[in-house]
Amino acid sequence: MLRWIRQQLGFDPPHQSDTRTVYVANRFPQHGHYVPQRFADNRIISSKYTVWNFVPKNLFEQFRRIANFYFLIIFLVQLMIDTPTSPITSGLPLFFVITVTAIKQGYEDWLRHKADNEVNGAPVFVVRSGSLVQTRSKNIRVGDIVRVAKDETFPADLALLSSDRADGTCHITTASLDGETNLKTHYSVAETSVCQSVSQLEALQAVVECQQPEADLYRFVGRITVTQHGEEIVRPLGPENLLLRGARLKNTKEIYGVAVYTGMESKMALNYKCKSQKRSAVEKSMNTFLIIYLVILLFEAVLSTILKYAWQAEEKWNEPFYNQKTEQERNSSPILKFISDFLAFLVLYNFIIPISLYVTVEMQKFLGSFFIGWDLDLYHEESDQKAQVNTSDLNEELGQVEYVFTDKTGTLTENEMQFRECSINGTKYREVNGKLVPEGMTDDSPDGSTPRLIGEELLFLQAVSLCHTVQISYDQPDCLVGGGDPFSHANGFSSNHMEYYASSPDEKALVEATKRIGVAFTGSNGDVMEIKAFGKAEKYKLLHVLEFDADRRRMSVILQTPSGGKVLFTKGAESAILPFTTSGEIEKTRLHVDEFALKGLRTLVVACRHFSPEEYIDVDRRLNAARTALQQREERLQEAFSYIERDLQLLGATGVEDKLQDKVQETIEALRLAGIKVWVLTGDKHETAVSVSLSCGHFHRTMNILELLQQRSDNECAEQLRRLARRIKEDHVIQHGLVVDGASLSLALREHEKLFMEVCKNCSAVLCCRMAPLQKAKVVRLLKTSPEKPITLAIGDGANDVSMIQEAHVGIGIMGKEGRQAVRNSDYAIARFKFLSKLLLVHGHFYYIRIATLVQYFFYKNVCFITPQFLYQFFCLFSQQTLYDSVYLTLYNICFTSLPILVYSLFEQLVHPHILQNKPGLYRDISKNSLLSFRTFLYWTLLGFCHAFIFFFGSYILMGEDTTLMGNGQILRANRQLMFGNWTFGTLVFTVMVITVTLKLALETQFWTWMNHFVTWGSIAFYFIFSLFYGGIIWPFLHTQDMYFVFVQLLSSGSAWFAIIIIVITCLFPDVVKKVFYRHLQPTSTQKSQMYSNRVAIGDDFIALQPLSRAKSQLGKISLYQPPRRRPSAVWSPCAATNMGKAAVPAWPTSWSK
Amino acid sequence: MATSYNAKDEDGHITVSGPSGGTLRSKKPENTAFKQQRLPAWQPILTAGTVLPAFFIIGLIFIPIGIGLYVTSNNIKEFEIDYTGVDMSSPCFNCSQSFSWNSTRPCTCTIPFYLDQPYESNVFMYYGLSNFYQNHRRYVKSRDDNQLNGDPESLKGPSKECEPYAKHDNKPIAPCGAIANSMFNDTLELFYNDPNGTKIQIPLNKTGIAWWTDKHVKFRNPEGNNHNLTAVFQGTTKPVNWRRPVYELDDDPENNGFINEDFIVWMRTAALPTFRKLYRIIPRKSSMVPTLPSGNYTLEVVYNYPVRSFEGRKRMILSTISWMGGKNPFLGIAYMTVGSVCFFLGVVLLIIHHKYGNRNNSADISN
């Protein structure tokens, strides 16, 4: 029993063995020692809560947040000891905050529940007791035989038993898992593939043994033991036998599979992991400020307690005749009293910690992040994709980026490959109109003539058209299935209807190119690949595929040629193949490869190896042994692969062009003007990388390019680094760019991190080539942890960028062709690189100023709120008397002052978005968290204290001895001068405060939409209406009626109005003066651009109505407008302005012609 | 926000049959002003140009207001006399020395004073206390508003907030609590010494000194209009420090019990330790003669209230009022100060605007 509980709680993993044994169709052996294993059911649970545990679990999670916990403690203190305010005053806001958060989380969880239910309740067909039974997805158990029809998704991880095809294969796409849209062929074991009907499956006796569930999508190790006629046949199972939950069946009518991993143990579910929590810089400074305020709070409480006891030392103050203590109070122990007094002061002042700050920030981020998805400028028409926000926690971080790390392929480039050139046997060829033209020759043979191809060329083309994992899809897949034999079908059909699907765009481009040239890959059926070389069909038997992996950086196939010979074709990176070649034009090819790379082409080298029959037997044996190994299969496969892929004959090399994306150059230029350093991290060759870097404007022609390449030893590397550092020092006028390759980088990072950083920081552009995925992350981490702690952003599109996306402060995924992995692991996803500039310069700017003001304002308004209360203690013997009524204490933060700041933080725009985008230099104004620097924080806090002093002492002086303000200025009654009283005094201070605090925000607001007007004036109006209402009734459930008619009495006095006006003006007017003076004497570039936009009134409509040329000239004015010599800033320098002019011109059509 | 991994939106687009599906709904965001953050907005910018007029206007409005307020405040006549009796020479010295709570014989003292100016219109008479912390928390909450509102249950069982003034001799105290218990109970009477030697008592109004709502809504005697208050308060006892029970505060049934205005005024706790409370109103007789002509007066005090134990002071204040309330020059001074500073800064800004504003404008025009 105990063990069971522990298992449920997850202390003891229930199964300790390394493998799980699955009895197909759950036919357990009748005899023998059979230990039933416990498997998870097929229910997918992505939700966090159930109806029953929602309240406790959610509460627990919320109170783990330190601020909530703090307020809970305050609340409990109020419940326990006699404190000046009722527990409601802190309980209600806490309740409000907790409820709002809980509702939000509950709603999100409800959506997840709905999705779960939909998935879990989906109908599936399972073979049970000899017939096909329809049931719900959640009822599938491990061992069940499941039937899946065409275009359905797999409900669990299934080991393929059979398909309707004779060879037992099927096609699937894993688009929803890894985003690869190509068709993948999966295989079944020959012994089971014959069982194509339910009755046959019924007779099948088989056991699957496989590893315990693990998250890696591409790893599966297992074996199936089929008992046929009393004889046990063991077959290996690999990832090609496993159909993953979430993948979709294609081109196949139906398959049968046995469920091996179900529910939360399926690979898809295991791959679902919570995002690592990234915290923004704003949040960090927010926490610092909170701690400072906590210190202020403690200081005030301690001071008050000490002063209280100093006063109390004298009997006449402690217990005058009119104010005796109760027996109980007299008798309680002094220490206890001291502590409770301290706690009471803590409670009294606790509002200085803004309780609603977190919830407002959360709401602001949640609601504000919608604007990114809604932005038309971030919408990509061609691919119908809009920007996507995966986490709203980092919105403001977009405005703080200092380093951008970008991937090259698919991020800067389109990842749309075009075959351009190749080198065959030492001769360079170009593709012209579907023909290969040798270098130096003109296209002399007119169309129609049969191209003459010599043997090497043909072999090369055959190799390229065979060595790949491309799938073919036809326009009418139904016919294909019906036809049974895809070859006849494909041949009957015009091959134009074929479409290639490949996981790698390079492969697709190559196969398409060979097809154009005349050697077309027409399809594969089982283990037969067919190509049509100039009309002649050739069939090759596919013996083995040595899959591509990032370490080997090559892939190979072993084929049996029509003539019966065994041949290995391999293709891969030049560095991964050339060392293993023994024959062929190695040197010439190497030269050509470098030439291609210089042109910015992506290069692949193709080689082959012919096996003698003996060799092949050896190879076959090794491969099979490695593939069926249950332990260390990977390592053994690697071993076998490297044994096979050697003694290669070099055939040639290919050059594929990857087009640059739209407006990459402008974007990089804009980022640079914004003070952001751009690093390109790529896996490509150094020559390719540099040429792309140059063409996308990352490197300038005028830049001095420093190189740190091919360093072999530590000392060499250090020496080179020192040389580079010297060169930078020598001529610091010119801009430097640095090229590093992966190997040198790892050397540099191992020992000479500091020196390397030194060099990097002085380079305006850095390019890292030949990078492994983890190295990318390492570079990011290096920069992240350097002493300045810059904010980093990583952008990429492929699975190899995931580590860097997760490592950087902000990770951005490009929704490209390389699948969804990057998008899924990113914080934001955009369709094109060019959107980055708007995302950072406009959205980042907006979010940052919004949240920065939000945070500062919250602290300010709470200082204003609670300091008068503190000051009042000096006038009431530190007796913890509250200045405000408890209802006001409660509602101040959640009603009277909450909405204007929320609306402000959603809609504020300091500068018009067009100007922000066209003046990237404005981004520098907010860099380094400048709006939340300690100086501004101090300013706001001091401002809060000053205002609080003015509220309190202003009211104090103007009130005089309690009666002067209440005069016969009253409208309703005749001459009377009445008592003011402490509650009226508090209400006066509170009224002044609500108005001032609201107007202070109004002063900060630059962008007054109708909503701002509504909430600003509405809040003040609401305060008045509420107060009238609250004071107008004797509330039956309150035990004191302190506020009865207090507010009306206050307002009915004319001089009170005069007092309110003068205090509010006194508070705000120095602030206005300060703003005006700073704007005129020391304007920031943001302010300058505001002045500008104000003067020429660049509104959207205005711009839209203008002819383009005029709009341009208007913008030209901004760039030419020079500040009066102070504070040289890059935006306004002439050079930047002209650059800007250049960059801005092509940028218009999308952003201006809406 | 955790994204669901169900990824329903992701597959399905990639159908092998190509884009012939045609059912794809475009994800294109709507082009609305709200979603594109293009809401029409007013974008005020605080520049010298925009702020200048505001400053001048504030200056021009505030300075006259300030002068008006100041003059009005100065026109208010106020007379204050301290009758605590701290000095040996003070007429009340004996009373203040020989104070005891249970003395039955009231101690009376007489203080002469001279008004050098006639007091026109209504004159307000206050008592002022210093060093008296009516705003002490223990004190402020020591009351039972339900009892004062006439709730019969609270009358018999006062709230425990009233402790230690809730019960006495096992009888509930009405009105309970420290505030009520310490009610100011000096009696002040004013006499005009006619130049011909006669001493004329000045009539003092003791109603109309409390908030109307307090008197008519918040404070209610138990059992409504029952005039026999003695019976109503049967079973309760008077506050310990009081000399008379609550139903004997005044002869006028409309000013007796909980709705006695002196009591209501006292129950409105003062915000600060030095305060004054309205005691009586001297109504104007006619517009022809001043309410209080200049001359010699005598204040007769029945000295009951001890303040010396906490170094308190007692004062009697006579004051006329204006449309803006009592004498308080600060409001006028504040308005004048802010007004002149505004005006001054307006001038400074004008200079700044003149010097720097031109340059900005020229940058525009030159293009």
Keywords:
heterodimer; A: 1154 residues; alpha+beta; 11-stranded mixed beta sheet; 35 strands; 18% strand; disordered C terminus; B: 367 residues; 4-stranded antiparallel beta sheet; 10 helices; 10 strands; extended; disordered N terminus
Structural notes for this entry:
The complex is a heterodimer of chains A (1154) and B (367). Chain A has 43 helices and 35 strands. With 1154 residues, chain A is α+β, with helices and mostly antiparallel strands. In chain A, a hairpin with a 2-residue loop joins β22 and β23 (536-549). Chain A starts with a helix and ends with a helix. The model of chain A is unreliable at 10-14, 443-450, 475-495, 965-976 and 1095-1154 (pLDDT under 50). Helices cover 29% and strands 16% of the residues of chain B. Chain B is built from ten helices and ten strands. Chain B is extended. At the A-B interface, α4, α5, α8, α14 and α35 of A face α1, β3, α3, α7 and β8 of B.
Secondary-structure blueprint of this entry?
The complex is a heterodimer of chains A (1154) and B (367).
Chain A lengths: L1 H8 L9 E5 L30 H10 L2 H15 L6 H34 L2 E6 L2 E6 L8 E5 L7 E7 L6 E5 H4 L1 E7 L3 H4 L4 H6 L2 E6 L10 E7 L2 E7 L4 E2 L4 E3 L3 E8 L5 H5 L9 H32 L2 H4 L8 H5 L2 H16 L6 H13 L1 H5 L13 E2 L13 E5 L5 E12 L2 E6 L2 E4 L16 H12 L4 E3 L3 H7 L2 H7 L6 E3 L3 H13 L1 E7 L2 E6 L2 E14 L4 E7 L5 E7 L1 H4 L3 E3 L2 H13 L2 E11 L1 H16 L4 H12 L3 E13 L3 H10 L3 E5 L4 H10 L8 E5 L5 H17 L5 E6 H10 L1 H9 L3 E5 L3 H12 L7 E5 L5 H6 L2 E5 L6 H5 L2 E3 L4 H39 L12 H11 L1 H10 L5 H6 L15 H26 L21 H24 L5 H22 L14 H6 L2 H28 L3 H12 L3 H6 L2 H13 L13 H19 L2
Parallel strand pairs in A: 15-29, 15-33, 26-28, 29-32, 30-31, 31-32, 33-34, 34-35
Antiparallel strand pairs in A: 1-8, 2-3, 2-4, 4-13, 5-11, 5-13, 6-7, 6-12, 8-9, 9-10, 14-35, 16-17, 16-28, 17-18, 19-20, 21-22, 22-23, 23-24, 24-25, 25-27, 27-28
Helix pairs in contact in A: 2-4, 3-4, 3-12, 4-32, 9-12, 9-31, 13-31, 13-33, 15-18, 16-17, 20-24, 21-22, 23-31, 23-43, 25-26, 25-27, 26-27, 31-33, 31-35, 31-36, 33-37, 35-36, 35-39, 36-37, 36-39, 42-43
Chain B lengths: L47 H28 L2 E5 L10 H5 L9 E9 L7 E8 L6 H4 L4 H4 L3 H5 L10 E2 L2 E2 L5 H4 L5 E7 L5 E3 L10 H7 L10 H4 L28 H7 L7 E8 L12 E9 L9 E7 L9 H37 L2
Antiparallel strand pairs in B: 1-10, 2-9, 3-8, 3-10, 4-5, 6-7, 6-9
Helix pairs in contact in B: 1-10
